[in-house]
Structure formats: C-alpha cells, structure tokens
Amino acid sequence: MTADFFRELTTAMEAARDAHAAGSPAERLLATCRAMRAWAIAHPAEFGWIFASPIPAAASARARPDSSRNLAGRDFELVFLEQIEDLWADAPFPIPPPENLAPSVRRQLQAYAASLGRKLPIEALHVALSCWIRLYGLLCMEVLNQLDFVYSDLAPIYEETLRDIARTLGLDYQQAAQT
C-alpha cells in the first residue's frame, strides 16, 4: 500500500513537471513542488501513511533494495533530485566550500550519492538536500496540522519557501498561477 501511495504522489509530481516540459527549469521545479503540496493536502491520510512513520533504516533498505516500497520511495526522491542535477549541469548554483562541510556530513552525503549512483558534487547535494528539508519539513508540519495554532492558510508560507529555494538555486521564481 505504501508503494502505491508513493507511486501516486510521484505520478502527480511527474505530470506537473512534464506539463512544463517546454518551460524553464524553474517552472518545472516549482510545478513539481506545488504538485507535491497539492497531492499532500488532498490526501492527508495517504501522506501520513507514507511519511509520518519512520522510513526503514538504511541497513534494512540495503537488505531489501528491490522491495516495492524502497523502489517507489527512490523513484519519488529522484523526481526532485534529477531536476537539481539538470539545474547543476546547466547553471551551477552557489555551493559552500568543501571545508565548510563537517567530515561526517561529507561521508554521509558521499554514501547517499553512491547508493543512488548520482554524480552531483557533494556540496551541491548538500544544498539540494537543505532545500528539500525546508520544503518537506514545512509540508509535513502543514499536513500533520502542526502549525494550525498560528496559520489557517499555509499556501503563502509554502510560496515564500519556494521563492527562497529558487533564489538558493539561482532560479527565477514565478508566482503560482491563480485558479
């Protein structure tokens, strides 16, 4: 069931990305991120099912790398990561100097990149994951109602986060189309 929910979310994100195939990298990435939020808001129970419980530890994921849950989860994470790789290939964004990353962070990022067979420089991967953590963290807090004590509408906060992420990645931010 978890794999099915991952696939549904991944399909929604890919469809949004592909709907902007002729657009700029910023348009594609922002559409992907907005589709992730739209799916999560429309499917809070499913979102909770796949994200509110711990993801299997890396050791168990390595033990069963071809389980449908692990494959579906990997496909989900690659929707964002592959776009970051494309951005990097076209116009590298600012990254921290290598010495700014703690040795343990560097080792963990190297292991992660190797597990996926990715070639993004470790410092660029660090920036990408920092962006992802902000976006995903906010989305989790929204869907799990952790910010209801302050906000009744987190759409503007999500857009602020997208604007900041676009700036971090050297992209032109485009406001979401009003519906």
From TrEMBL:
InterPro entries: MT1864/Rv1816-like_C, Tet_transcr_reg_TetR-rel_C_sf. Keywords: Transcription, Transcription regulation. It comes from the Bacteria. Residues 29-164 form the HTH-type transcriptional regulator MT1864/Rv1816-like C-terminal domain. Signal peptide: none annotated. This is HTH-type transcriptional regulator MT1864/Rv1816-like C-terminal domain-containing protein. The lineage of its organism: Bacteria, Bacillati, Actinomycetota, Actinomycetes, Streptosporangiales.
